[in-house]
Amino acid sequence: MATEKHFRTDIQALRAIAVLAVVLNHLWPEGLTGGYVGVDVFFVISGYLITSHLNREVGRTGRIRLGKFYARRARRLLPAALLVLLFSLVTAYFVLPFPRWESNAEEILASAFYVQNWLLAANSVDYSALSASASLAQHYWSLSVEEQFYLFWPLLLLLLFRLRGWRAMTTGVSIAGVASLAYCVYLTATAKEAAYFVTPVRVWEFAIGALLALCALKVPLLKRESGIASGVGFALIIGSAVLLDHQSAFPGWLALLPTIGTGLVILGGTRPAAQWHTRVTAARPVQFLGGISYSLYLWHWPLLVLAPFVLGSARLSLWQQLGLLAVCVFVAWLTKVYVEDRGLTWRPLAHSARATFAAVATGMAVIALASTSLTWAYDDEVARTEVAAKRDTVKVCHGAAALAPDSGCENPFGPAKVPFLGPSSEYHQRPPECGDWLGTHLAGETKTVSVCDFSGGAPRPKVAWLVGDSHAQQWQAPLFDLARDQGWVVKLGFLGACPMADIAYRGFRGASGDDDVAACTHWSRDLASSIAAERPAYVFTSFYARQETADDGSGRSQLAQYREGLNTYWSAWTAAGAKVYVLADPPLNGDVRQPDCVSINAQNPAACGVARERAQPLDPLTEAARTSRDPDVGLIELTDYFCDATQCHGVVGNVVVYYDADHMNREYARTLSPMIAAELGITDR
After folding, report:
1. Taking 50 as the threshold, does the pLDDT of residue 130 lie above it?
2. Residue 210 and residue 284: Cα distance in Å, rounded?
3. Residue closest to 648 by CA, chosen among 599, 683, 613
4. Where does the pLDDT of residue 105 fall: very low under 50, low under 70, confident under 90, or very high at 90 and above?
5. Could you tell me the strand order of the sheet in which 633-636 lies?
6. How confident is the model at residue 384 (pLDDT cuts 50, 70, 90)?
7. Share of the chain above pLDDT 70, in %
8. Of the ranges 217-231, 262-276, 330-344, which one carries the lowest mean pLDDT score?
9. What percent helix, strand, coil does the chain show, rounded to 5?
10. C-alpha distance from residue 260 to each of 15, 236, 434, 674 (Å)
């Protein structure tokens, strides 16, 4: 059985390219838009190196010493990984605002047990989680995928070898790879967000490397062929990093670009002679970067997340970013020398798999205990914050009232009384008057409809619907206040990332999966028809039209398509006797300012002000309502309670305006109740 066992400077260079692509993408996401493909490069490299090692062992001995294999993997990877997780837990407590403690504790714990990718996959289908701030351990998803691969791959290869040797291994790996690629393409088309994280979708990338390990030496290349393979490979990797972006249907078919590129570079390097690129790829700086790539990947993300809080700057300057990059490289080098290398050869563990596993269990237990402690600290802080939030809520200048005409409030944009928001500020909280989510108007398995009865048992109460996505849901708190005063029954209909319009919907922030689009289209039409048949007194609607794309192939503008699709529903509702009110979307938050800006600038939140025209750009939903000719369609536009004449703010009337990157703080939304009542002509409150 042909084997290869010489140091590959080209593979070390691939590591350098991969980690640099990821780090630069995270530092400058609008610069190297597709730098995330560095992870795919790592997957192919891992498949190649691990399979090469296992192939040599099984070919030489006819078996794989699984205990020794897993122990070596643990000594190689876990010391640095657990060190960074422990650092993240400690700094989360001392540096991050408390609302981020719970999610960080949860994700760090998942990362310690290498199931972070599955947690993120589950959260990716939770629309509210899309607005959550990134945790310090979010990048561990790829390490989780790798560890899961390391867990089952030796068993698969050993089983295949014992069936029919090399031929069975090659055939089995090929079948696994093709099946995984097919699933990858399917899931990317139907559920893109989840597809990015789940392990079966990524197996084919490891399989490319594995097939090279099993077959590459059987296909000897001439010098010219090796050079061409390497050149095309580097071009595919760099090209995909430059040309792809967050809207690309990735992984899917597009992941073939960086993975095949990596495979070609590895294939070209199986010929041991120097190549055209060797002078560059074997240069000491490149080899140094490849050598620290694992530690650099571990450290760069938590340091990047922490930096704005440490430096007190929501957006880092170029010099701060370059300084941060230098710190990441230095810390990675220290970790490589004093943790990675020494952990691999530390005598008490190096010759004992049992001792290694005991050390691993101890390290994971420490992370679990520290994560639990951080969660307890979060719960204590939540209790204190909820007490503080109940104070001063009836002052004249509280919240939106501070921007009311002639309010006389001296400093409407001063520091918030409660700058860090806990669960009591969640926009999706529901009062006891709301029943369980009903089994009607399902979107797949998602329940979307609920009834909130504020009538007190009165006969024939007025019924009001609130429908749309989570941008409608953020308005429910002030509507509940009105309904309680007026004795209404409020019916809720929400589906995340789904516009309540009869349009050719294509997706949220780009293209969504086919299944999600189909579910949204069916749901909105079905619910719109049911609302018309019910003949309610009011229909309130809102959704994030600025990020929910319509494309019927006509080439018409978003506004033209939305105006037509909205009128279809609105005219049916008004014909049934309802007054339709469009709740104009508040000014943008996370799209125009760092979502943590208010937390970072707690004493000077005015620093988070954004130019009004930038924070409140054209919205197809608002414009359609503004220009509607239907006298029973009204627009409730409250931008003046978020902005002054020139800027929109993150704190108004000593209340934080936004709960997360996309939604209002529940407390601030409630301060808008009098303004909504005035728009409805309700005066008896």
Report:
1. no
2. 28
3. 613
4. very high
5. 449-453, 489-494, 463-468, 538-542, 579-583, 633-636
6. confident
7. 96
8. 217-231
9. 60, 10, 30
10. 15, 8, 53, 60
Distance, in Å, from the CA atom of 435 to the CA atom of 449, rounded to the nearest integer, reads: 10
Which 8-state DSSP code applies to residue 590?
Answer: T
Q: Which residue carries 């979107």 as its tokens?
A: 443
Residue burial 192-205, b: 16+ Cβ < 10 Å; e: rest: bbbbbbbbebbbbb
Please state, in angstroms and rounded to a whole number, the distance separating the CA atoms of residues 101 and 205: 34
Give the pLDDT score at 685: 59
SS3 of 391-442: the string is CCCCCCCCHHHHHCCCCCCCCCCCCCCCCCCCHHHCCCCCCCCECCCCCCCC
pLDDT band at 209 (very low <50, low <70, confident <90, very high): very high
What is the four-CA torsion angle of 290, 18, 595, 386, rounded to 10 degrees? -70
Q: Using one digit for the tens of pLDDT, what is the confidence trace for 133-160?
A: 789 999 999 999 999 999 999 988 888 8
Query: CB-based contacts of 372: which residues, under 8 Å, 6+ apart?
Result: 105
Residue pair 297/45 in contact by the 8 Å Cβ criterion: no
Q: What does the mean pLDDT of the chain come to?
A: 92
Question: Residue ranges of the alpha helices (H) in 514-595?
Answer: 514-534, 558-575
- Which DSSP helix (H) or strand (E) runs through 208? helix 199-215
Q: How many Cα atoms sit within 13 Å of 210 on the Cβ side?
A: 28
Q: At what angle do helices 66-95 and 353-389 cross, to 10 degrees?
A: 20
Helix spans in 579-618 (H): 597-600, 612-615
Using a 10 angstrom Cβ sphere, with 0-12 exposed, 13-18 middle and 19 or more buried, the burial of residue 496 is: buried
Cβ atoms 495, 446 nearer than 8 A: yes
The answer to whether 194 and 138 have CB atoms below 8 angstroms apart is: no
User: What sign has the CA pseudo-torsion 562, 567, 568, 574?
Assistant: positive
pLDDT digits (tens, 9 = 90+) for 45-100: 999 999 999 888 887 887 888 888 899 999 999 999 999 999 999 999 999 999 99
pLDDT tens readout for residues 607-644: 999 999 999 999 999 999 999 999 999 999 999 999 99
Whole-prediction pTM: 0.88
Q: Which residues of 82-103 are buried (b: 16+ CB within 10 A; e: fewer)?
A: bbbbbbbbebbbebbbbbbbbb
Residue 665 is given by DSSP the state: -
Q: Which of 183, 147, 184 is nearest to 43 (CA)?
A: 147
Residue 344 to residue 78: CA distance in whole angstroms: 10
Measured distance CA(169)–CA(182) in Å, rounded: 20
CB atoms near residue 563 (< 10 Å): 20
